Amino acid sequence: MPEPHAEVAIGVRDLVVGFGRQIVLDHLSLDVRRGEILGLVGASGGGKSVLMRTIIGLIPRRSGTIEIMGQPIGGAHDRSTATTWGILFQQGALFSSLTVRQNVQFPLRENLTLSLDLMDEIAIAKLEMVGLRPEDGDKYPAELSGGMTKRVALARALALDPPILFLDEPTSGLDPIAAGDFDALIRTLQKTLGLTVFMVTHDLASLTTVCDRVAALADGKIVAIGPMRELLQSEHPWVRAYFHGKRSQMLQHEMR
Amino acid sequence: MNSEPLLLATPSGGKLELRPEGPWIAANVATLETLSRSVVAEVSQSRAVTLDMSGISALDTLGAWVLEKLSRQAASSGRPADIVGVADHFSGLLEEVRQVNRHAPAQVAAPSPILLRLDDLGKATIGAREDITIFLRMLGALFMAVLGVVRRPRSLRLTSLVYQLNRIGLQAIPIVVLITFLIGAIIAQQGFFHFRRFGAESYTVDMVGILVLRELGVLIVAIMVAGRSGSAYTAELGSMKMREEIDALSTMGLDPVDVLILPRVAALVIALPILTFIGSIAALYGGGLVAQFYGDMGPAIYIARLHDAISVTHFEVGILKAPFMALVIGIVACSEGLRVKGSAESLGRQTTTSVVKSIFLVIVLDGLFAIFFASIGM
């Protein structure tokens, strides 16, 4: 899949990641295009999260290169990459000792020099953009529902307006209504802010409704990539099992 | 792409044309703030404001908000700004930013300090009552569990009891011996040093013997056990509570008090007197060593003086307190463990509370025993 360089937001080449003798990602290559929402599916424990955590530098790689916006990258503590991406962790990973507003302000405070007034205004603006009320800013993470936690985490991930957003199972643990709302929110924000979104998910509804392309990870490699319709036609046995299992039948029906 | 953002202000006959240029993004926030502040006065004075966006090369939420603030300021002085030349790919963001920060968060009136004090006092009172209720309820539950074991001795969880005895008894011996040995030695050294001035060195042995056997031995061992084993109990039960293991036990028709708490508290009640005995002996030994090397008093004289100074009563007074202290430590540790709520912070908080509370109660109990023994003449 050779593509023009400028179009690629995240370029992964020949990535090998393993723990001990076990190889999790085996010469994996993947391109995420600028301005698309890419969904990544794979078996539980099959390396989806490992791939995401390797790209953002939390897990060391054995070999291969990762380029973000055309720049090769090092590790997680590379300060320069911190403003390039925002990450929504599965459990939100909000700092429990800070209020919601302070959580959203944290990246601003650490990376920029700006007045307190402006910082407050920006934090509230972000909270409103993710669909929360300004009053929620004074709550602590422990007082939030699951859906609100994810929204605050998204606001924090977007605090510095990064061009790339990583989402780790954004709809897990949410009821279908909240999950649907969250999908719509991601779509809206992606359009407004021109984000590139890399989403690890199991939620077939998210894959069908929000993702521009879907990549399937099996045996440590990307075995299929393309729009949902193409993936449904894929002949790879694992991809067939994933999308043509009983749970997927209904969605597949809708697609036709 | 311009490297620095600019804001060109062109006043013309009461009208003001603002032309932001370059990258209006978060990375340039300091410049953006200065720029927008520099035109604030002009904006509020001019009769009409035009905002020409065509020169902007990059825009993010922060930049859009700074511009939106300028346009709102113009609007608030009665002359809405005319926004022109917005590039297509920025219009969505500008539209979005126009919606935010419309209403300030409702200000919650701060309650008066007196009311806050009263509120704290009320909460503390209710909290104290709740603590007592929980303590008594756990005591009652334990009593019922013991009755159950007496009726059906086979229902005792022997494996668990032995495991806990090993953990909080046997494995605690080295540290208990070390600490009590040092305490005994220190008391003896102080005794010799200060009593020497009155020529009353030989009474040091009386002091060490009585103090260690009646008070210090049991108190120090109990405090150490509260810190070492009580906190472990709270953390264990708390994490089991967090992961719903205790609920799982209950739904299988088992009483968590029988299965988890009785073996733990029983192990403490058995182990603490034994540890107290070992600790007291170690303290007396420490005192003896100091007597030999610092007080010039040979082992034979030390033991003979000790024989005169102390009686079985002193030993009984100390050792009798141990099981009661163990019961208090066990009940506090276990009930604090069961009070843990879903979060990890709650586990940490409850563990701290458990240790603080059980050490406090151990000392209070020691005081009550002192009064009791004094009044019955022991």
Report what the structure shows.
- The complex is a heterodimer of chains A (256) and B (378).
- Chain A has 256 residues and is α/β, with parallel strands linked by helices.
- Helices cover 37% and strands 25% of the residues of chain A.
- Chain A has helices at residues 48-55, 100-111, 116-129, 146-157, 176-193, 204-209, 228-233, 237-244, 246-255, and strands at 8-19, 22-33, 37-42, 63-68, 71-72, 85-88, 164-168, 196-200, 213-218, 221-226.
- Chain A has a six-stranded mixed sheet, sandwiched between helices. Chain A has a four-stranded antiparallel sheet with strand order 2-1-4-5, covered by helices on one side.
- In chain A, strand 1 (8-19) and strand 2 (22-33) form a beta hairpin.
- In chain A, helix 2 packs parallel to helix 4 (146-157).
- Mean pLDDT of chain A is 82; it is low at 1-5.
- Chain B is α/β, with parallel strands linked by helices and 378 residues long.
- Chain B has twelve helices and five strands.
- Chain B has helices spanning 29-45, 61-76, 88-99, 113-151, 158-168, 173-195, 203-242, 245-251, 256-293, 299-309, 312-338, 344-375, and strands spanning 6-12, 15-24, 48-52, 56-59, 82-84.
- In chain B, strands 1, 2, 3, 4 and 5 form a five-stranded mixed sheet that branches.
- In chain B, helix 1 (29-45) links the parallel strand 2 and strand 3 (48-52).
- In chain B, helix 7 (203-242) packs across helix 10.
- Chain B starts with 5 loop residues before the first strand and ends with a helix.
Secondary structure blueprint with pairings:
The complex is a heterodimer of chains A (256) and B (378).
Chain A: E1 8-19, E2 22-33, E3 37-42, H1 48-55, E4 63-68, E5 71-72, E6 85-88, H2 100-111, H3 116-129, H4 146-157, E7 164-168, H5 176-193, E8 196-200, H6 204-209, E9 213-218, E10 221-226, H7 228-233, H8 237-244, H9 246-255
Parallel strand pairs in A: 3-8, 3-9, 6-7, 7-8
Antiparallel strand pairs in A: 1-2, 1-4, 4-5, 9-10
Helix pairs in contact in A: 2-3, 2-4, 3-4
Chain B: E1 6-12, E2 15-24, H1 29-45, E3 48-52, E4 56-59, H2 61-76, E5 82-84, H3 88-99, H4 113-151, H5 158-168, H6 173-195, H7 203-242, H8 245-251, H9 256-293, H10 299-309, H11 312-338, H12 344-375
Parallel strand pairs in B: 2-3, 2-4, 3-5
Antiparallel strand pairs in B: 1-2
